[in-house]
Amino acid sequence: MSILRDWLANGLLITDGAWGTQLQARGLAAGTIPDTWNLSHPEQVEAVARGYVEAGSQVILTNTFRANAIAMHGSGADLDAINRAGVAISKRAAEKQALVFASIGPTGKMLVSGEVSSEQVAAAFAAQAASLAVAGADALLIETMSDMEEARLAVEAARRTGLPVIASFAFDTGKNKDRTMMGSAPEAVAAAMAEAGVDGVGANCGVGVERAVSICQRLHAACELPVWIKPNAGLPTIEGAAIHYATSAEFFASHYAALRDAGASFVGGCCGSTPEFIRALVAARLAAADAPAAAS
Question: What is the 8-class DSSP label of residue 179?
């Protein structure tokens, strides 16, 4: 049985919020790859992680979303150093109060169009997963995926580390915004990832919290795995060079019980969410502590 089950023995865990927008608020310039700040501005990256721990996150991620050889091709960056530093920074901030799940994002290239080969993708994920594992991550989170084949290659690479692996997809396409960019529904994703051997499946980014409840319920119904849910803070609006997210922390947290009852095992926020969103989720969980979870 996966150690995820042990971590979830006392109930749902609150994760963290957005990283990119928090780093931008600390001076990350447009066009700068956030992951490079693990080496150039580690104190700012640690401030983001620490902010979530202080807000009550029981699981925090790492600033390593793009740190693979394909996504950062041509950057000249030391990817092994970036990945190791990302884990070290989050572990310092966690201070043994939170688990550290290392982030692995997509390559940004399309397998189906031949932009990149399966062998190149597999090698890129294998190198990143190995660096994150050696650095001491508690688990690996493959996130914001849209292509199930790319996700499968990432899962295969991540599983070789021996760490728990969660695969999370962005559902933001179709009439009901319940498909990935490649057209996959939650049920298909859950089945494919379970077959690939993941320890958990989920959804992040894509939609706001109100739509995430249904997606969570469908993922939970399609497999017996823990479900990871991190919706956006609503849909963004752009004013000049600034991006704004309209959803309030209170509105976001008002869906806590619905997400719990839909089968979520991990709940946090994605783009636009802040430590205030995490504090609101923690408060919502405390307020709902005596409310029984819906039967599975």
Answer: B
In angstroms, rounded to a whole number, what is the distance separating the alpha carbons of residues 228 and 124? 24
> What tens digit of pLDDT does each residue of 202-240 get?
999 988 999 999 999 999 999 999 999 999 986 666 665
In whole angstroms, give the CA distance from residue 127 to residue 148.
20
* Every domain of the chain and the residues it spans: 3-287
- Residues lower than pLDDT 70 in the chain: 1, 234-246, 290-296
- Percentages (nearest 5) of helix, strand, coil residues in the chain: 45, 15, 40
CA distance 133 to 295: 36
Pick the CATH number of 3-287 from 3.30.1380.20, 3.20.20.330, 3.40.309.10, 3.20.20.70: 3.20.20.330
Kindly report, residue by residue over 17-28, the tens digit of the pLDDT.
999 999 999 999
Could you say which DSSP state residue 199 is in? Answer: S
CA distances from 163 to 32, 224, 265 (A): 30, 19, 18
Task: Decide if 176 contacts 205 (C-beta within 8 A).
Answer: no
DSSP assignment of 99-151? EEEEEE---SS-TTTTSS-HHHHHHHHHHHHHHHHHTT-SEEEEEEE--HHHH
How deeply is 100 buried, as exposed, middle or buried, from its count of CB atoms within 10 A (0-12, 13-18, 19+)? buried
